[in-house]
Amino acid sequence: MAPLDEFDPPRPGPYTFLGRLGSGGMGTVYLGRRGDTDGSLVAIKVIRSDFASDPEFRRRFEREARTAQRVHHTYTAAVLDVDINGSRPYLVTEYIEGPTLAARVIDFGIARALEGRRWRQCWCWRLLVGSRSAAR
Q1: 3 state DSSP class of 17
Q2: Cβ atoms < 10 Å from Cβ of 21
Q3: Whole-number Å distance between alpha carbons of 83 and 58
Q4: Full-model pTM
Q5: How confident is the model at residue 126 (pLDDT cuts 50, 70, 90)?
Q6: How far apart are CA 61 and CA 115, in angstroms?
Q7: Count of other CB atoms within 10 angstroms of residue 57
Q8: Which stretches does DSSP call E strand in 39-136?
Q9: Section 24-48 average pLDDT
Q10: Mean pLDDT of the chain, nearest integer
């Protein structure tokens, strides 16, 4: 996990950022905690500002987030919250500690990276299975 810096967005809603987990084409994912609950760790995906300014992107993002909220499966990280109305839309899921998919592939190769019961506990496997379930 990378530390926060001056380029990270301000606190989204009731969540506090603890560090940066990673970033990709749509935005950055942070480790966080919701201040008004039991303090469970969450993953907060904050959308890039250039996408946030696109009304069509916001509509698609909301539709996909609401669809993902309907997926309930052992191998998916539950979508806990979504906010598309702020200046930077965000999506909050349960945080599931584990290695990244990239780390698994580097360590074990693609075939071994995706096998094994322990791996199925990892957040990226759960997200992959959940996305597939939502598409059905």
Answers
A1: strand
A2: 18
A3: 10
A4: 0.74
A5: low
A6: 31
A7: 17
A8: 41-47, 79-83, 90-94
A9: 89
A10: 81
Burial of 92 (0-12, 13-18, 19+ CB in 10 A): buried
Give the span between the Cα atoms of 35 and 62, in whole angstroms: 24
* CA-wise closest residue to 15 among 69, 110, 90: 90
Instruction: Read off the amino acid at residue 78.
Output: A
Edge to edge, the sheet with strand 41-47 lists 15-23, 27-34, 41-47, 90-94, 79-83
Q: Which residue has the tokens 């909050």?
A: 92
Name the burial class of residue 108, with classes exposed (0-12), middle (13-18) and buried (19+) by CB atoms within 10 angstroms of its CB.
Answer: middle
The type of residue at 14 is P
